[in-house]
Amino acid sequence: MKQNRNTSENQQTKKPKNRKLTRGAMSILLTALFIAGVVLINIILSVVTDSHPLYIDVTENASYQLQKETKEYLSEVKDPVDIYVLQKETDFESGDSSTYKYRVQANKLIHAMENSSDNITLHYVDLAAEPTFTTPYTQVDWTKSHAILVKSGDLYRAVDLTDLFDFDQEQYSQYGTIVITGQKVEQALTTAIVNVTTKEKTKVTVLTGQGEQDMSAFTKLLENNAYEIETVSLLNESISDDSEFVIIYDPDVDLDDKAYETLTKWLDNDGKFGHNLFYFPNDQHKLSDFPNLNALLADYGMEVQYGYIYENSENYIIPGANHYISIYDYGEDTTYTDNLRNFSIPVVMMLTMPVKITDDTMAKPLLTSSDKSFLFPRDMEEKDLKSFEPKTESLNGAAIGIRNDGTEGSKNSSVVVIGSYDALTTNYLSSTAYNNAAYFVNLFNTLSNRDDISVVIEGKDPSSNELGITSMNAILFPSILVRFVIPIAVLVIGLIIWIRRRHK
Question: In the predicted model, what is the mean pLDDT of residues 65-93?
C-alpha cells in the first residue's frame, strides 16, 4: 500500500512538471514560428522593394510623389518604354549639399514613374563601363550633357540636365558654377515618353515673312506634346499637304494677294476641309493695314476690333496689375474645354483686342471677359477721355469660326483668333497659376481629334517643410522599419516571454 501511494504521489508531481515543459516548448515553438514568419515576410518585402522601392512621403507638398496628371497619363501608356539613366544610381544622386536634395528627389520620382506603369522599365547605365551603349543612337548629339535616354521601339529621345533641373543662370554665367534651384523631372520625362510613344505626329506650320514675333515658347510646348513644327515663308515656299495647322503670330505686315489665296485654298482643301488657322493680330497697326487678313476672318464670321479689353471687374483683374491684364471665362461651348483637367484655373491675357462675331452661324466665343468690361479704343486721344462713355459688356478675347461642306460627318476647317499674342509668352505659359499652357494645347488636341496628352506638369521643391523628419528620413524610414525594427522588436518580446514563463 505504501509503495503504491508513493508511486501515485510521484506521478502527480511529474504531471505539473510535464505540463510546464509542454507549455514552455509550445511557447518556444510559437515564438520561433512567429519570428520565422516575420523573417519570411521581411525577405519577401526586401525582394519586392528592391525592384519596386517603397517610400512614405511626409513632405509638406508631397515632393516625392507624382502628380495626379502624371499618374493618369502613365497608367495609359500601352507601348513598352525603357528609361536609361546614364549613370550609376549612386552617382546620379550625388552632389553637394545644395544639389543633393534635388537629385535625390529626381531619382525617387523616376522610380515612381516606373512603378506607375507595367510598361515602363528603369535602367542605370554606367557609360564609363559601357562606352558603346550610345553607339546605336546616332540622332543624339552625345557631346551635350545628356542625363537620360527614353526609348520605345525605334523611337528615342535624350533628356539633358537642363531639361531635368532649373539652374541659377546668373551663377552659371558669372562663375561657371551650376547651382540647381528646382527640378522638372516629371515634365521632362513625361514629355519624352509622349514623344517616343506617339508614332504619327501632327504637323504645325508657323508662317514667317510678315515680321512675326518670336513664339518659340509655345512651339516648344507643342513639340513637347508630340507636334511636329515647321517654319514656312509664303513668299517663296508652300504649306505642306499634311500640315493640319498654320499659325500667324503678330504679323507686322499684311498677307499679299498670293499668300492670301494660298491660305484660303489651304483652308478649303479642295472641298475636304480639315485644316486650322490660328491668328494673333498685331495691336500696333491700324486694322486698315491688314485688308487681306480682315477678309479671311470675315469669311469665318469674325472681325478684330481696334482697341483693348478694359476689365472693370475686381474679380477678373490680376492682383497688382492694371485693367488691361485680366483672366477670362471659358466659352459656353464645352467642346474645347471638355478635356481640361482643371476648370478652376483661369486663362490670363493682356492688351487683348476684342474679337467680334459677325456671323454666329459660323463663329462662337472661346474666351470671354466679364460683363463689366468695355472696349477702350486704341486711337483714343487724351482730349476725348472726358466725353468717352464706354459700353460695358462681355467681350470675346478669343473666338473660333468654322466652315465645312454642310454634309453630316464632314470635316471642319477652323480659324481661331486670339486677341492677345502675350497669351503665349513664357511668363504665362510657364506659370502654374494660369491655365494658358494646358488650355491652348488642349485646343490643338481637340481640333486635331487627338486624345488629351497634355503634359503641363508643375515642378516641386523638395526643400519645403516636412512633418517633423527630414526628407532622407522620410525615404529610408519604411526600409529600416521592415528590415530591422520589427524583427528585433519581435525577437526581444519573444525572449522576454520565454524567460518569464521558464521562471514561473
Answer: 90
List of E strands, 285-434 = 302-304, 307-310, 325-330, 347-350, 355-357, 363-368, 374-377, 396-403, 413-418
The predicted structure's pLDDT at residue 470: 37
Q: Give the residue from 279, 442, 422 showing the smallest Cα distance to 348.
A: 422
Kindly give, in sequence order, each residue whose CB lies less than 8 Å from that of residue 298, ignoring residues fewer than 6 positions away: 358
Q: How confident is the model at residue 36 (pLDDT cuts 50, 70, 90)?
A: confident
Close Cβ partners of 303 (under 8 Å, ≥ 6 residues apart): 294, 297, 355, 356, 358
pLDDT of residue 256: 92
d(C-alpha 138, C-alpha 202), whole Å: 24
The three state secondary structure string of 242-292 is CEEEEEEECCCCCCCHHHHHHHHHHHHHHHCCCCEEEEECCCCCCHHHCHH
Single-letter amino acid, residue 132 = T
What is the per-residue pLDDT for 139? 92
What are the start-end ranges of the H helices in 52-67?
none
Side-chain half-sphere exposure of 301, counting CA atoms within 13 A: 15
Residue-level length of the chain: 504
Name 465's Cβ contacts closer than 8 Å, sequence gap at least 6. Answer: 59, 60
Q: For the whole model, what pTM was predicted? A: 0.74
Q: Evaluate the CA torsion angle 334, 338, 344, 349 in order and state its sign.
A: negative
Binned at pLDDT 50, 70 and 90, residue 11 comes out as low
Nearest-Å Rg of the Cα atoms of the chain is: 33
Task: Name residue, grid cell 562663375.
Answer: 175
End-to-end CA distance of the chain: 34
Is the pLDDT at 459 greater than 90? The verdict is no
